[in-house]
Amino acid sequence: MSVNQGYSLNEIIGRNCRFLQGADTDPIAIQEVSTSIREGNTCQVVLKNYRKDGTPFWNELKISPVRDTKGRVIHYIGAQTDITERVLATEARTTAQTTLKQSEKKYRDLVEMSQDLIWSTDQEGRFTFVNSAAKRILGYEPEEMIGHTFTDFQPPEQQQQGWEVYQQILAAQSYYQYETVQLHSDGKPVHISFNAIVLRDEAGLVLGTTGIGRDITESKRAEVALLHSQRFLNSVLDNLPVGVCCKNASDLRFAFCNKTCEELLGFSRQDVLGKNDYDLFPQEQADFFTTIDREVLRNGKLVDIPEEQIQTGHQELRILHTRKIPLLDAQGTPEYLLAITEEITERKQIEIQLRKSEELYRTIAKNFPNGAVVLFDSDCRYTLAEGTDLEVVGCCKDKEFLEGKTLHETVTPETSELLEPYFHAALAGIENVFEVPDRDSRFCGDSFASRIYKVHTLPVRNENGEITAGMMMTQNITERKQAEEALLAQLCMEALRANVHLALTQKATLQQSLQLCAETIVRHLDAAFARIWILNSEEDVLELQASAGMYTHIDGPHSRVRVGEFKIGMIAQKRQPHLSNTVQDDPRISDREWAKREGMVAFAGYPLLVEEKLVGVMAMFFIQPLCEAKQIGLFTVANAIALNIEHKRTTEALSETEAKLQKLAANMPGMIYRFLLRPDGLISFPYMSPGCRELYELEPEAAQNDVSLVYNLIHPDDLQEHKDSVALSAQTLQPWYWEGRMYTASGKLKWIQGASRPELQANGDIIWDGLLMDITERKTAEEALRYKTTQLEQTLKELQHTQLQLVQSEKMSGLGQLVAGVAHEINNPVNFIYGNLVHTEEYTQDLLYLLSLYQQHYPHPVPEILEEAETIDLDFLLEDLPKMLTSMKLGAERIREIVLSLRNFSRLDEAQVKPVDIHEGIDSTLLILHNRLKAKPESPGIQVIKEYSDLPLVECYPGQLNQVFMNILVNAIDALEVGIADWVLGTGDKGLGKNSSNPQSLIPNPQSPAPEIRICTEVLNAQSVVIKIKDNGSGMTANVRSRLFDPFFTTKTVGKGTGLGLSISYQIITQKHGGVLKCFSEPGQGAEFWIEIPICQN
Length: 1098
Description:
Blueprint lengths: L1 H4 L3 H4 L14 H13 L3 E8 L5 E12 L5 E10 L1 H30 L3 E6 L4 E4 L2 H6 L3 H4 L10 H16 L4 E8 L5 E12 L5 E10 L1 H22 L4 E6 L5 E4 L1 H7 L3 H4 L4 H4 L2 H17 L3 E9 L5 E12 L5 E10 L1 H12 L1 H9 L4 E6 L5 E6 L2 H5 L4 H4 L4 H4 L2 H15 L4 E4 L5 H4 L8 E9 L5 E10 L1 H28 L4 H16 L3 E8 L4 E9 L10 E3 L3 H9 L3 E3 L11 H7 L3 E9 L2 E10 L5 H40 L3 E7 L5 E6 L2 H6 L3 H6 L2 H4 L4 H17 L3 E8 L5 E12 L5 E9 L1 H10 L2 H70 L5 H9 L2 H33 L7 E3 L1 H11 L1 H4 L9 E5 L6 E3 L1 H21 L1 H6 L26 E9 L3 E8 L6 H5 L18 H12 L3 E6 L5 E8 L4
Parallel strand pairs: 31-33
Antiparallel strand pairs: 1-2, 2-3, 4-5, 4-8, 6-7, 7-8, 9-10, 9-13, 11-12, 12-13, 14-15, 14-18, 16-17, 17-18, 19-20, 19-24, 20-21, 22-23, 23-24, 25-26, 25-29, 27-28, 28-29, 30-32, 33-34, 34-36, 35-36
Helix pairs in contact: 8-20, 13-14, 20-21, 20-24, 21-24, 30-32, 32-33, 33-35, 35-38
């Protein structure tokens, strides 16, 4: 113990064990130990104790008493076992199991919530598990896929390949990724990307596979669109006169290069793509390129490298002028690095040659394309001026005017202020290359403000390297800059069009698609904001549907703009775009102060037209000028959005029209169809309305796919006539009309009438659009006319039947009213009598008590009183009077019960369906028939045995149901009364014995069964109740039983029945209550009527 607990032996001896316990030690276990010690019993418990250092441990303690020779406990021996590891292991196992269950539920929930298809298969490729995403992706419930192989959901031509892929999955050691095409339940192909892995048991045997499938159908469609756009861009880029290449921003590896770039670098496209600069160029050169690239990506701005020397793949040295700019993704993060480069090797060589010879300089300067070359000395005096654009640098085409004059003497002060710092820098040995900002009149003058010039200032050195002069070369790069801008704009607009196309093709509402388009325009063109309106043609109002950028709301004063109002309404009215790069001075901008405050520069508004039909307006504001390429690109975007709006509207209208036509076709009697006859004699049904199901008992799709299904149903005797009529209509192009017989798919014979008008198509096809109608009823009517006499007789019988039913119904109604009236009339006086009997009984008791008091106090009355008492027999009167009052009270109660039964039977106030107690209706009927059931002097009576079950309230027509009980019970009583003589005489004959003339003298024959009616009720399947009424009469033959419920059929003598009681009862149960009425009977076995009605009526 000292080892386990940290205490020495001396610290333990003499102490109570409580020093080992803590606050969380089980008190029940401690009490068990105390009880065992007190009672001298053995005990084993588990306690949580604490060591000397305060650490807990679990102790399994077992104590046993030690007794002396007399059986007395002298001390206890205890054994402690440290079971901490076992307890902790048990707790850990319990925690792990709980965690495992929670984890299993969590992952199962995640699987079911996943938008991807998650599945498992066995070794044969049959699905053993599929999550609920199968319904969204493939249109099948998971249960429909279980047990099927994945190839069952592939197109037939891909199933063999699919099975081979599955074998590869089973052979794979790690996960296997592949793409395939599955078939949706509606037959449409679905592109799915699968990631699969093999499932193995502990022995490494293959159990099956599991994996995830993602619907990539939309991305596949987007890939096709992007591929088309990519091909177009590649074609444009490959034909540019400048080199264009792109690198991935992440690793600076080449992702694209055009043909010009291939020629400049000296490497083929295959050699460049996927490589970085270190794979293509020397170390020092690659370091320079990489440093510049990273600077561009870090700063996110355009970097102009006027001169960079590279060693090409042909081992040539070339000098390039390169511009680099980052291309950003949707989040504004650099995704690619775009470089546009041109070779300036020749230009640099020209500059070198100019240092050697002024004449060479002049010769070259004369031939310098699209620019001018000037040399100047240390005083900024021109010593040489040549070129086609000398007026740019001196406002004069005459070189003699320039040569010999200083910069200040030949240009304006503004131009001198611009150029002088560069001249001095060149003379100081500093070379500069810069572009004059677009439309900078300080350099070009107002007459050349639309041009863009590249200016290169550099020092001119002699053979010793000394600076002898400076040189300025100017080159008109307007066209090149425009080409570059056009290229960038083209790239931007292609990306914009691709993203707009993607937004328009998504499964979304029109407003959601337009909002995505507006957001895409703002993101790609850096627009301040963009908005799209749709025309409400009924009100001639433009309604704002989408807004993105600095304004995202679609309410406010511009949410509804009438055509012709504001700039938006004017664009719609004139159906012409409105484009402006001078918004702040544009008279159409109603709030120019707002434009100045927000820094707006450009506006672009486009009418959304579809074949000259206005569907809306698209408008954007920009804080920078909008180039022509973007203006043209936006025009195509506007056309795409307009077409999408019209397409969406047309689709909705077509869907609505189609739904109406489908509804019309579905509700129209007969079948609407289109029949096609080709010039080669082939026939088909391009369309059949849903009436095909009722007419032919065929699905329209099945009949359209196989015309023979329809022709095989035509009656053989009418088939040739049908073919001839079609051929004649095709030949003459006259309306087709035909009547004939056909069999439905179930074998039912029908008469069909068809009518249509042929139309000859341009390709030689003939189309009949017409209607086929079932005229079987009409034909049947025509056939029936030939049997007019029989039909009239049948009609007469039906009228007689109906009349008798009406008479019977009126009788029952009159009887009900009579019974209810009698019950009411009797009820009032009976209530009066019954109420007065109570007081009469009280008064009588008071009088009798008073009389007894007289007798006590006047025991000897006068002779006259004694005589009168004897005359009226006072003692008998005192004894009989209370009995008489009690009998009157019982009689009145009996009358009340009869009245209640009469009212219950008539049910005049219960003509509608209502929940009632079935037993109450049966008892009321029995009470009314009590006189026929009770014993009489000439008959023993009929015993009624009730075997009632606990029934719920049943929804029914109470009065009509009571009529059924009355009809069946009366028939049972009639049958039993016929057999009463059998019970009395035991002769077996119906009625009284032939030799008996005094029925009252008859005595019961104990050998014949007593007449009885047994009534049983029960609940059947919790849905219906069954009432069985059985008698032990003579029964009936099969012939009688088969006609039992026929109208006018009766076995009773004339005058005792109409034969309508059971027929009406049958209609009440089957038609009114949706129940069952049937009879079981054999001769000599009595008859049992089975009444079954639902507990609740529909």
